[in-house]
Amino acid sequence: MNTFETDYLVVGAGATALSFVDSLLDQTDARITIVDKRDTPGGHWNDAYPFVRLHQPSSYYGVASTPMGKERIDTVGLNAGFEELASGPEILSYFHAIMRDRFLPSGRVRFLPLTEYLEDGALRHVLTDARTQITYKRLVDARICENGIPLTHVRKFDVEDGVVCIPPNDVPRRAKDHRHFTILGAGKTAMDTAVWLLGHGVDAGQIRWVMPRDPWVINRAFSQPSGAFYKHVMKGTAQQMAAARDAKTIDELALGMEAAGLWMRFDPDVMPQIMHGPTLSQAEFELLRGIKDIVRLGHVTAIEPGKMTLKGGVLDAPDSLYVDCTARALGHTDTWPIFTEERIGLQMIRLFQPMFSAALLAKIESLPLDNKAKNALAAPVPMTDDVRSWLRSQIATSMNQFAWGQVPELKEWINQSRLDGFGRPSREVDRNDPQVKALYDQVRAVAMPAFANMQKLVASG
């Protein structure tokens, strides 16, 4: 049996693990070993469907040391007017280059692909079954936030012979053989699939969309990270704070976000029940609203030729290509202490920002603090399910950000980090500009009342 020592053993080579390692390389002189059951780095991006793109601009995704994209503004397509969104192949290539050109040449990172972590430092090579025993000082577990993947997840419904049901990965190859399409799921994968079909000439009338619960959708116009968008983004932030301050109920808050143009819903007569953070441009959203055959009878339980059974009823079903978009990307709504004697459990510490969170956790790990003090700076922020849980996670994020602001070293790191897309706009504008100052003062004035009311709303049943 092979044996060796390392300072940090990182289980997983997905996006968050690589972001943590990248930051740890800069902040420490530690030796790091990464193990992953896949043969290449990049985690779920290795199995992503071919038309996937980031929700958010490329400029604040990836690892802190290395830019992704060119901060280019798209001039054509459904994202026109906003910063570029990296495609799946671009992201995978980026992570491969991080490993090849930065991590391995450092001489301090060892990557063991096709390797399963067992327990207590025991590793197993998945092809040869060869065993390795590794002695480490800190275990970093990146599996807590592991994504559900359309290509590999286990379906929760039955599909009989004679029905063609595929993951979105196969849509470009199989779509040409069909004239009707049924999209299963209400998340971003389902939206991406519908946009791909519509963008390639499929008529909206040829699509049925099974939407178990309607989603709130975030307007991408308010997540642009450059100074050129500062006034628009800060106005949106002020409107969000005002909606949070004034709402008497959870539904009132959501409707206030909609009235400000921050959130969108597909049907004005249906109150969405889920908030998972999907982000679309207005152009993408309007394209999707052209789909009128939307089934709202809960989750599918079975599909057979000519019939689809859902929790809320049974429907006649035309001959159709069924696209399974029911995998839940980030499904964890529970949290665990991040820093313990046994491990560092990578989780979000800023809502919807796993890459920033992982990089900042490495910075916090580098500080001369005990685990209790580190955890005080890193309350885990769970993935959201509905508006109430979105509020809880926003409160947790705000409390973390307040704590970071009290530590000069963390504040300076955040101010210089390319992954801090929220802070970049304010760093790229003239703070003496009267309009800039007025917007900044407006947000500051409403922030505390909004935070106090958010806590009341979460506690109100």
Automatic annotation (TrEMBL):
SUPFAM superfamilies: FAD/NAD(P)-binding domain (SSF51905)
InterPro entries: FAD/NAD-bd_sf
Protein name (database record): NAD(P)/FAD-dependent oxidoreductase
